[in-house]
Each structure stands twice: as C-alpha cells, then as structure tokens.
C-alpha cells in the first residue's frame, strides 16, 4: 500500500519517531482531563459516553478531585499541566468557579470543553475571574444539521452565541471543534463562513468514532472519498491562511496529509502526556478510550504511582501490531492510530483513517 508521502515528509516523520519514543519514556504529564459530570443538557447522536440529564453516576465531590490534584502538584510541576474540565456538560456543575479558583491556587492552568448551551455572559465572566484560560465550544454544522446531531432545535443558536462570547473575551484562548459526518461534509465552506462572522480564529475538525451512541449511526461515519474531501478542504484552508484556521484533530495518522492538514505530525499522547480522572474516580488517559484500559482509581490508588508505574499499554504500543497493522508499512509512524479507535478487550481496530485515505474504501 503506497502512503503517497514526499521525501521531505518521510525524513521529518522518521525524526519525529525518535521524539515520540523519547517522550513515551519520559511521559511528562501535560494534560489532566477531569470527567467532572456525566450529566448533560443535550442528548447527542454521537455521544461516546451515553450522557443523560440524570446520570446514574453522581458527580464527584470537588474535594475528592482537588485532593488528588494537590497530591499531583507535589510530584509534577503544576505550571506545566493544564486541567481540562469535560463531561457530560461541565456547566451543569454549579461549583466550577470555586473549583477553578482552587486549581489556580494549586498552580495549575485550567480549561473547559462545552456544548455552549448553558453559557451566559455572567457565567463566563465568573469563570474567567476564577482563572479559566481556555474554552473549546462545539459547533457541528449549520442550523439543521447541528440541531439534528444535538437532538435540540435551539442548540445551534446557543452554540453560536457561546462562540461569540468566548471570541470576544480577550483573556481567553478559544477554539471551536466540529464533528464532521455525511451531512456536514458538504457544508464545510458554509460552516467556515458562519464561524468567521463570530470572530473565532481556531477551528479543529474531527471525525466521529463508532463508539457509544455513534456505533449505531452509520450516517455519522465518513467513507474514504469523504475523508479525502475533508483533508483537501483543510489543506486549502491552511494554504490560503483563511480565518478561522482549520486543522485536523490529533485522532489519527493521515498519511500524505501529515504536516499539511495540521501543525506537526500524528502522536497519540494518551498515557504519555495525557491522563484523566473519570466520573467514578477511574484513572485513565483520554476519556474516550476503552474503559478496559483503566489503570486504577483515585479512591484506592495514588495517581502519581499509577502514572509512573502503570500505563504500559499506552507507552509501548507493540501489542497492537496485529491484523492489518502487522503488514502495514506505516505502522512505524502511526503505531495503530488513536487508542480511542481500539476495542482493547477484543484487540480489534474499529477503523483506520490511513487505509480509508489511501484506498478510498468505506
């Protein structure tokens, strides 16, 4: 299978391999995701966590999480770590400002990922005054497509209002993420124009992994030709320096589009630079990764010990050089792709972006 890489890309990718290997050995913690709630004010078709208005798992008490971060700060320099509040929908917690203030006291930076539905000017000012440094808001299409995916007829309007709010807030770094599917792949220019009017400058585009609710929604999955169309759109946006600047997410190795559709090269940093504390206290890497890869629990284990002594499946990926990966010439560059694409319990790769791009197959 031909990767279609230029000589320059191959040289740079081989150099990057050495960097990635060194980082995996050192594994400095840089991002700590906290699944601060599994409650959500929407019921999205693509939700990987099956979040509901009322979750069967209660919100973790703030003191339990803050006690863990206080212990982390004794071992890992907190100034080098960003705590990312995710969910569910973080804004459903009433104590976010207090939590954020305490995180800043401990020396951490903190940010938030939100659907924007409950973001108001007063709430945003409260959070910024508590040290909020960055916000990511989701916009997944023009009005009809976004509202379809989010299962709410008012979600598009509210998301746009939230994007305008964060774009105007001079003390924040902000960006928008868009989950591209079979409907929205045909409206990327329209979404870009809509975002340009908000003043937002950074735009990350994702595909939707077939996990959670999305596993039963084939309309959410791009085929090979659609994926190449997405890569071409991003490439042209970046070449022309359009605003907002588009980039493909960190989710997968993309062969000939490496270093073109985003800054730098693919690196699944889960368990290398990224750790997470899930709603029930489980210790893992990115929250979307298979729960069979959980490494411990803050209610029984010390996070620092787990981070240093566990996480072997994340830092040595040789276990996944099986099936199609065992014969792929590009494995040395992708190491099986993003770990969220693996059904670890059954050692099965759910999908391969590189294969889709090169062959055009579904």
Tell me briefly what this model is.
By secondary structure, the chain is an alpha/beta fold. The chain has 12 helices and 12 strands.
Task: Walk me through this protein's architecture.
With 362 residues, the chain is of the alpha/beta class. The protein is built from 12 helices and 12 strands. The protein has helices at residues 7-26, 62-73, 96-106, 121-129, 143-150, 155-168, 188-196, 224-239, 303-309, 312-315, 331-334, 353-359; strands spanning 31-35, 82-86, 109-114, 132-138, 173-179, 202-206, 245-248, 274-277, 282-284, 296-297, 342-343, 348-349. α8 (224-239) links the parallel β6 (202-206) and β7 (245-248). α2 runs parallel beside α3 and α8 (224-239) crosses α12 (353-359). The mean pLDDT is 95.
**Main sheet properties:** 10 strands, mixed
In helices, the fraction of residues equals 25-40%
Shape: globular
Strand content: 5-15%
- The main sheet orders its strands as 7-6-5-4-3-2-1-8-9-10
The Rg value, from CA coordinates, equals 20 Å
Spans of at least 5 consecutive residues whose pLDDT stays below 50 are none
Query: Roughly how many Å apart are the termini?
Result: 16 Å
- Number of helices, counting only DSSP H or I runs of 4 residues or more: 12
């Amino acid at each position: 299978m031909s990767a279609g890489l230029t000589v320059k890309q191959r040289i740079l990718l081989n150099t990057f391999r050495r960097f990635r290997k060194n980082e995996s050995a050192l594994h400095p913690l840089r991002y700590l995701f906290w699944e601060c709630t599994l409650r959500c004010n929407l019921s999205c078709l693509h939700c990987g966590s099956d979040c509901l208005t009322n979750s069967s798992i209660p919100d973790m008490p703030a003191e339990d999480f803050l006690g863990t971060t206080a212990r982390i700060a004794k071992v890992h320099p907190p100034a080098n770590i960003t705590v990312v509040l995710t969910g569910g929908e973080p804004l459903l917690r009433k104590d976010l400002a207090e939590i954020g203030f305490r995180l800043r006291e401990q020396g951490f930076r903190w940010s938030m990922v939100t659907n924007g539905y409950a973001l108001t000017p007063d709430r945003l000012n409260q959070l910024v005054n508590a040290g909020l440094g960055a916000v990511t808001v989701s916009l997944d299409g023009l009005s009809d497509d976004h509202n379809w995916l989010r299962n709410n007829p008012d979600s598009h309007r509210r998301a746009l209002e939230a994007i305008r709010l964060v774009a105007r807030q001079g003390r924040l770094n902000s960006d928008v993420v868009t989950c591209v599917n079979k409907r929205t792949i045909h409206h990327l220019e329209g979404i870009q124009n809509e975002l340009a009017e908000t003043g937002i400058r950074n735009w990350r585009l994702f595909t939707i992994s077939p996990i959670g609710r999305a596993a039963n929604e084939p309309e959410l999955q791009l085929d090979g030709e659609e994926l190449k169309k997405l890569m071409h759109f991003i490439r042209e946006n970046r070449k022309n320096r359009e605003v907002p600047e588009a980039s493909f997410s960190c989710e997968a190795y993309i062969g000939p589009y490496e270093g073109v559709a985003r800054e730098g090269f693919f690196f699944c940093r889960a368990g290398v630079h990224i750790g997470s504390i899930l709603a029930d206290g489980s210790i893992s890497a990115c929250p979307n990764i298979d729960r069979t890869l959980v490494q411990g629990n803050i209610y029984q284990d010390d996070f620092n010990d787990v981070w240093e002594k566990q996480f072997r499946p994340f830092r040595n990926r040789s276990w996944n050089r099986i099936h199609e990966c065992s014969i792929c010439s590009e494995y040395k560059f992708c190491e099986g792709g993003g770990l969220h694409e693996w059904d670890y319990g059954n050692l099965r790769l759910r999908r391969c972006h590189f294969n889709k791009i090169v062959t055009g197959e579904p």
